[in-house]
Amino acid sequence: MKTFNYHSAKDVKEASKLASSNSAFLAGGMTTIPSMKLGLASYKDIIDIKRIKKLSGIKVSGKTVTIGATTKHSEVASSKDVKKAIPSLAALAEGIGDPQVRNRGTIGGSIANNDPAADYPSACIALNATIHTNNRSIDAEKFFRGMFETCLKSTEVIESIEFSIPQKSSYQKLPNPASRYAIVGVYVAQHKTGINVGVTGAKSCVYNDKDLAGALTKNFSSSVIDSVKISSSGMNSDIHASSDYRANMVKAFAKKAVDAC
Amino acid sequence: MASLVGSRVERKEDKRFLTGKGRYTSDINIANQTYAIFIRSPHARAKIKKVDISKALKSSGVVDILTGEHIAQDKIGGLIAGWAIRSEDGSEMKCPANPPLAKDSVNFVGDPIAVVFAETLDEARAAAELVKVDYKVLKAVSNLGEAMNSETIHDGIDKNLCYDWLLGDRQKVKEAFEKADKIIKLDIVNNRLIPNAMEPRACVIDYNTASEEITCYTTSQNPHLSRLIMSAFGGVAPENKLRVVAPDVGGGFGSKINLYNEEIVCSWASKKIERPIKWVAERTESFLTDTHGRDHITHAELAVTNDGKFLGFKNETIANLGAYARVFGTVTPTYLFGPCATGVYIMPAAYSNVKAVYTNTAPVDAYRGAGRPEATYTIERLVDKAAMELGMDPIEIRMKNFPTEFPFKQTLVHQIDSGDYVAGLNKAKEMADYDGFAARKKESESKGKLRGIGVTSYFEACGIAPSPVVMMLGCGVGLWESAEVRFNPTGQVTVYTGSHSHGQSHQTTFAQIAADELGVPIENIDVVHGDTDKGTFGMGTYGSRSLTVGGIAIVNACKKIVNKGKKIAAKMLEASPDEVDFKNGEFVVAKSNKKKTIGEVAFASYLPGVRDEVKSPLPEGEEPGLIESSFFDPANFSFPAGSHICEVEIDPETGHVKLDKYTAVDDFGTIVNPLIVEGQVHGGLAQGIGQALYENAQYDDSGQLITASYMDYTMPRADDLPDFNLGFTCTKATTNPLGVKGCGEAGTIAATPTVMNAVINALDGKEISLPATAEKVWKACKEMKKSNAKAA
């Protein structure tokens, strides 16, 4: 690992001030640290935001669940409030990585990293999330830009993620047998305002599958999914799953999600 | 005293392992040590034009940098193949030189070229990045099937062919096939595996400038053999100036049988730089450079009659050796594979023909089961296919071809001393509720799932022996084992064994054996292994040999102790030695009922005298002390066998295979410790299931390993596995006094075909290649649905 400056920010303002195009915020470090160890990433400054109390915690209001950026997956998974308001979100958190990852990894880190196979981005899409940073609030649909890419500026700190509580929802994933990241993960959520189908793992970036959402809007049942055509073009292909298999698994797991709703 | 052999004694090792107190190589630190980082080839095949270390040498903290040039100047020898195999035409096998550091060419990604020694690990890493190697990259030979038609990797080795070996009689097979009603044919790929021991390889070397002795702490399954090779072939130091210690070792599975480049290089370099050296592999280095396993392409045929009798078998295999031939690399696909390929059956005619070829991939060597899993997979898939094509039940066809009398002369080599294959399969059938399968299948179908059942009957040949035979077949060493049993004057016993425990629990099982033989409480017995300075020479642990060979050496050494003890006791008890009986730790003279405990005899043997009287308890001519050693060379291999049955449930929507039930019935002869044996079976099954469903090492066309981390190489996990249902139908081995057979590899050998037979059964006989990943199974389900629709 190359040398770097380590800072422990006392508040968001300081964290933002220390940040530059050659820095990284450190929360759980589940991606940042291995990337640095493997020489895939190097930074001049590492800004630790774990001590900023304000960034951690779970709040449930009537219509939304707001989760602080440095809240750990294990905290979301075991939160009674989340389990009650959006059980599928707690279940998603319970299925991330392994206990070690869940006890360190954070929701803010996951969505800021925007790994194409990460679980949380699909929840943001399906649950009409708003990502609150130190200077603005961003709709999830606009937040995720591409592979490992978001609209965050280098000095911008995610403070919390606010999820709309759906009428019903379910997240179902086909885990990569080796890494247990999603080969395909489908998050189906029915809101009063409409249906979202957040899909992760399948393409270079999480997306809302409008075709599936459209079909489910007409008839919320797994049987309508068979009639939806999902093209394999643009789907990821690797040693674990071809694009054709992924396209089919989007359907298969959408059906499972609808059945589990 | 009740016998300890056969009882579930808790492991002596548990306390230190479960509380994190194991002492592994990387736990060892020596004052003033330097840290080594190896510079490895990023190319699968290239000529080395130039290695420039000038800039790196000036880097902070660098002690020295050594290259292939330096090691060649010092005439340090390289790595070797342990078995010489002859081709069918009588010619000797062809092996390339494998220098510890490459000088002229590199032949797989990870092949080491140079090594940096620095004051800290970070400094070593930083300097390693400054070593500039100029390569001329050549086209890699990475595809096994095309290797013989590709460019020649090693000068003088045409077609990249190491040997073209035959076992059996082609003419007899031809005649048998002419008489057949049906010929069953099968093409299979036995997928390449990476052993993935939990503890990565490591070595810590300490050169003593005063005594000029090198101590090499290393992660080895056989430290004595490592010392022998390093001394005799490497020329690193004479054996008496080289001590090899393999302390706690966190798993080997065959990958730590070999002596590796790093141990030779660091041992040589420690003397050169006069500093201790520490090297610990990173996980990526383990993936790239540990020896891999399996990797065969096989075409096999079985000639049968319409009523399911086997008439003949042929096996044409191409085996991947990787870039170089290593210790068990050449024997694994020949004598460990070919003979077992006819399985547990009466097979009137058979041959196995194996072409072993070089490719630009990591060396392939023994991996748990070594050759026998590949053999068993071949025959057991073929037998299932035969049952299907003949419309027979898989159990019925097996029963029909089992031998029922033992000793059984197996077709190609082995004389199997004992066994009862019928009893094993019957028990497995009953335990697995084979007859209830149809109902369970129906139930799965009602949920939209497919269900399959798979059967395997296997035997394996382990504890390779006797030495004159193995050396006649080409082995470079004898495969006996040694033991030394030392009584301390105060009555505790230390057992030194040449076997090595890296998960096998010898400290417990060997102590159980010695406790029974000597009548000493197990708490008073210590088992010492893994240090060339402690105990006699040894051949190490692999091929399920420790108990059947090493364990018997302990028994024999204990018997010598008792014999000497009898003579001493006789004099002490004023009787003749043949009037003394030894039982439960006591020497007893029946007629007088006088007795001495073995502890008293041991004490007397060390302190042969009494106050105020010139009197020794030692008989005339008997030396003081109670220490005996034994070298045991068995009369034959041991032949564990068994039948396994499993059931899988497949989700046709996703292709996910759920392993639902697994029943294993094994014959391991006398079982010393059922608790430990069950653990061995569990671990073995997990690895065999891993090969069937998850594990698959893959190289791309340019020879890059694309499964070089746990992000891409799938290991089986606890939640992938069902509760295992274990049973035993043991028949005692007749080739050793305990009646024991090996048990370490059996689970792995049987599990892969059992699971695949079940998957293929669920798919109505549709062939699928290893491993049965979800996507492959999903595709097969889709095609099945199509053809079913057509049929309807």
How would you characterize the overall build of this protein?
The complex is a heterodimer of chains A (261) and B (792). Chain A is of the alpha+beta class and 261 residues long. Chain A is 31% helix and 25% strand. Chain A is built from 11 helices and 14 strands. A 5-stranded antiparallel sheet of chain A has the order 4-5-10-6-7. Chain A is globular and about 55 Å long. Chain B contains 19 helices and 28 strands. In chain B, the strands form 7 sheets. A 7-stranded mixed sheet of chain B has the order 3-5-1-12-9-10-11. In chain B, helix 9 runs parallel beside helix 18.
Residue stretches of chain B low in confidence (pLDDT < 50, at least 5 long) are none
**Terminal-residue CA separation of chain B:** 70 Å
Q: Strand order across the biggest sheet of chain A?
A: 4-5-10-6-7
Gross morphology of chain B: globular
Mean pLDDT of chain A: 96
| Helix amount of chain B | 25-40%
Instruction: Please write the CATH class name of the largest domain in chain A.
Output: Alpha Beta
The greatest interface between two protein chains, and residues involved on each side, is:
A-B, 17 and 19 residues
Shape of chain A: globular
Supply the number of structural domains of chain A.
2
The radius of gyration over CA of chain A amounts to 18 Å
Helical run tally of chain B: 19
Backbone structural class of chain B: alpha+beta
| SSE pattern of chain A | EHEHEEEHHHHHHEEHEEEEEEEHH
Proportion of residues in extended strands of chain B: 15-25%
Outline of this structure?
With about 260 residues, chain A is of the alpha+beta class. Chain A is built from eleven helices and 14 strands. Chain B has about 800 residues and is an alpha+beta fold.
